[in-house]
Amino acid sequence: MLGRSALVKILTLARAGGLSVALAVCALVLPDMAQAQERGPVQLVASSPDGNAKADLFEQIGRWWDRSMNGLNAGMRDGLTDFRKLGDNTRDAVQGAATAAGSAAASFATLPNTRIIRRRQRCEPAANGGPDCQRAASAVCRAVGYSRGSSLEVQSEEQCPMEVLVSQRRPEPGECRIETYVLQSVCQ
């Protein structure tokens, strides 16, 4: 007959989500225990390093299960703590970036005779082949009456011939070109 502690351990395994483990243990142990009842009582003995302690098989399984669950719970707690730290660090970084952006905007506003002009101007190719956005930003600023300017926001896009777009095919290398535009300029 199963001991009370063994039944408690099996029920604990089943309640903790280890129903398949509890059923497997029962399937392995119950036939042997039925035969053991016919032969008489049999003691299950497990020796500790000193050789004097007796332990029930189900108590051993129960201890192993408890240690495993404690380790899993500790790992989950540590993971949750790390996840919360990551969230806190991300929030702090975003707040710092927002503060810096606000400070930069305030700095521009306090400079005498400085304005941010929003106008799209194509950056012509420079001598080295790259886009010359400084010249484009200065052209935007001169168009509205300022003497000089520099680019604040730039956008690049791929320009393809109409037949490539209409046919919806992949463009061949060199068939499309990258164009860069100044979207905002700081003018003085």
List the SSEs and their pairings:
Layout: H1 4-15, H2 19-39, H3 57-110, E1 115-122, E2 124-125, E3 131-132, H4 133-143, E4 149-159, H5 162-167, E5 177-187
Antiparallel strand pairs: 1-5, 2-3, 4-5
Quick overview:
With 188 residues, the protein is α+β, with helices and mostly antiparallel strands.
Element-level helix/strand string: HHHEEEHEHE
Mean pLDDT: 75
Total DSSP E strands: 5
Helix residue percentage: 55-70%
Number of domains: 2
Strand percentage lies at: 15-25%
Structural class by sheet pairing and helices: alpha+beta
- Major sheet: size, sense and barrel closure? 3 strands, antiparallel
Instruction: Supply Rg.
Output: 38 Å
What is the 3D shape?
A: elongated
Strand order of the largest sheet: 1-5-4
Distance between the termini: 94 Å
Low-confidence stretches: 42-46
Report the total helices: 5
